[in-house]
């Protein structure tokens, strides 16, 4: 561990979701946070102070998983409506959508090269998709019950099933998840059949099964180096397996209810978990102990995620809150560590994988001395960010048209495989008349009670505001690029100064020796 240890702190509190927050992921440049919810909406939170948030409308049921592509140009979301959507995380709100499974899609994740997607579903299958050509590649079918999570090595997708019963929230932890490994050679998946499975993407065969669970396996993911997988269970446990020796090396029982989600710190030294006991726990994997218990959510914690650089982590839960925390507890240079990890995932030679210690199988339970953190969530300094809703129809006539017909009008197929491109809904308002059942037409003025001249004026104002919004977004991007270039220049200047000092020191030593 680092010599200097500081407690995590609550940085920001985002309000915008109207229901349970089920998933979260940071953008690769750590400037955006994506969250999905039972309110069927995807939110993109800009982490710049006072920046607006975007609400993306499109899914017709609970969003179960969300993941940024490696270059940050796309956001994938999975839903109980059996579809996966690929969004452009900007004001334009463009998306493509395809029906991925015959049942609820529990998770979605990009491979590390951004060329593939892995999805897991209640139809008991894990599927791999090509992103560029937007086509199905192959299935992995061996689970005998719902698949909660499936992941490529170093990639993770999670989805807790959330059911509303008589006004109260009932949580089912039998989730289907899948994850890619960091080098893309493996996929890990878990499900309600109480197994965690490891798949070879080349042979498409299941190469290992971990079955040491007293309940459903709820979440699975690879550590940053790809040597280990961790899995959590409805039996309150969290386990870490060495996939080289197929042995259980760490076993934590630190929560008092089922563990719904977890996230590895990019260094591989820490792990944060979220549970139905309303707490988050931070584990030191090198020392094999619990170091922090974090409070702040009222109800089950269903989503946790570290940022790519490890400086931040986010959490979401049944209370509809999205909290963003600063880690503070480690001062290692993770940019250096991550660059080493990236070198290890080259196909030739095979990656040298980092060890997790201790190597012996033993249980870790909560110990005295664990730091309890109780932030004051309601009085955070950041107010509610302004939310821009993307894809909402102005002067909607949804009360006249059925939801299905409106959906079919928006989504126009572009391939025989079921992929569609969704236009921004503002474009559809160019039509001045709406068609009613039976072939009759009616003008907007009749429905809205607003004169057409005022309608036209308001629409022109909205269009101008959209242009201004896009212009500001472009300026923000250029400012960001300028800041990045300036930071690079400053780093180079520091290196040059260090080299100059070394040269001057060498010259002085040489002069001293000559004298």
From TrEMBL:
Top-level taxon of the source organism: Eukaryota
Major location (coarse): cytoplasm
InterPro entries registered for this protein in UniProt: WD40/YVTN_repeat-like_dom_sf, WD40_PAC1, WD40_repeat_CS, WD40_repeat_dom_sf, WD40_rpt, WDR55/POC1
Gene Ontology cellular component annotations, sorted alphabetically: centriole; ciliary basal body
Keyword annotations of the record: Coiled coil, Cytoplasm, Cytoskeleton, Repeat, WD repeat
Compositional bias segments (type: Basic and acidic residues): 400-412
Subcellular location: Cytoplasm, Cytoskeleton, Microtubule organizing center, Centrosome, Centriole
SUPFAM superfamilies named in the record: WD40 repeat-like
A GO biological-process term: cilium assembly
Sequence segments annotated as region (Disordered): 400-453
PROSITE patterns linked: WD_REPEATS_1, WD_REPEATS_2, WD_REPEATS_REGION
Coiled coil: 458-485
Residue spans of the WD repeats: 14-47, 56-87, 98-139, 180-209, 210-251, 252-293, 294-326
Family per record: Belongs to the WD repeat POC1 family.
Protein name: POC1 centriolar protein homolog B
Organism, as annotated: Cyprinus carpio carpio
């Amino acid at each position: 561990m680092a010599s200097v240890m500081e407690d995590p702190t609550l940085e920001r509190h985002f309000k915008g979701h109207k229901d349970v927050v089920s998933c979260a992921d940071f953008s690769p440049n750590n400037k955006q946070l994506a969250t999905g919810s039972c309110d069927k909406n995807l939110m993109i939170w800009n982490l710049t102070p006072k920046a607006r948030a975007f609400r993306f409308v499109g899914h017709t049921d609970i969003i179960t998983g969300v993941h940024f592509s490696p270059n940050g140009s796309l956001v994938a979301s999975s839903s109980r409506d059996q579809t996966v959507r690929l969004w452009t995380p900007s004001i334009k709100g463009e998306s493509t959508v395809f029906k991925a499974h015959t049942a609820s899609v529990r998770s979605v994740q990009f491979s590390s090269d951004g060329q593939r997607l892995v999805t897991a579903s209640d139809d008991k299958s894990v599927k791999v998709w090509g992103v560029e050509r937007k086509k199905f590649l192959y299935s992995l079918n061996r689970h005998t019950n719902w698949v909660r999570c499936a992941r490529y090595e170093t990639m993770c997708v999670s989805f807790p099933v959330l059911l509303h019963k008589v006004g109260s929230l009932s949580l089912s932890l039998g989730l289907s998840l899948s994850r890619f490994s960091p080098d893309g050679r493996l996929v890990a998946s878990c499900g309600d059949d109480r197994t965690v499975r490891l798949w070879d993407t080349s042979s498409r065969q299941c190469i290992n099964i971990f079955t040491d669970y007293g309940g459903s396996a709820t979440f699975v993911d690879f550590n940053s180096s790809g040597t280990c997988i961790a899995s959590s269970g409805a039996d309150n446990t969290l386990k870490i397996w060495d996939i080289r020796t197929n042995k259980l090396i760490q076993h934590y029982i630190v929560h008092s209810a089922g563990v719904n989600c977890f996230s590895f710190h990019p260094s591989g030294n820490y792990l944060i978990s979220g549970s139905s006991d309303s707490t988050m726990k931070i584990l030191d994997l090198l020392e094999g102990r619990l170091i922090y218990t974090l409070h702040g959510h009222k109800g089950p914690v269903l989503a946790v995620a570290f940022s790519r650089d490890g400086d931040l982590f986010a959490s979401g839960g049944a209370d509809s809150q999205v909290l963003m925390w600063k880690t503070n507890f480690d001062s290692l240079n993770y940019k250096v560590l991550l660059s080493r990890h990236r070198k290890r995932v080259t196909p030739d030679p095979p990656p040298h994988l980092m060890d997790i210690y201790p190597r012996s199988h033993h249980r870790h339970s909560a110990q005295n001395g664990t730091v309890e953190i109780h932030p004051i969530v309601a009085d955070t300094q950041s107010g509610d960010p302004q939310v821009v809703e993307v894809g909402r129809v102005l002067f909607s006539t949804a009360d006249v048209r059925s939801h299905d017909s409106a959906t079919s009008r928006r989504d126009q197929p572009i391939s025989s495989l079921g992929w569609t491109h969704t236009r921004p809904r503002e474009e559809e308002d160019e039509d001045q008349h709406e068609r009613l059942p039976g072939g009759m037409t009616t003008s907007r003025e009749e429905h809205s009670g607003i004169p057409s001249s005022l309608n036209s004026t308001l629409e022109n104002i909205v269009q101008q505001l959209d242009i201004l919004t896009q212009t500001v977004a472009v300026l923000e991007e250029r400012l960001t690029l300028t800041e990045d270039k300036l930071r690079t220049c400053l780093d180079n200047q520091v290196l040059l100064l260090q080299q100059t000092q070394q040269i001057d020191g060498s010259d002085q030593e040489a002069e001293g020796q000559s004298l």
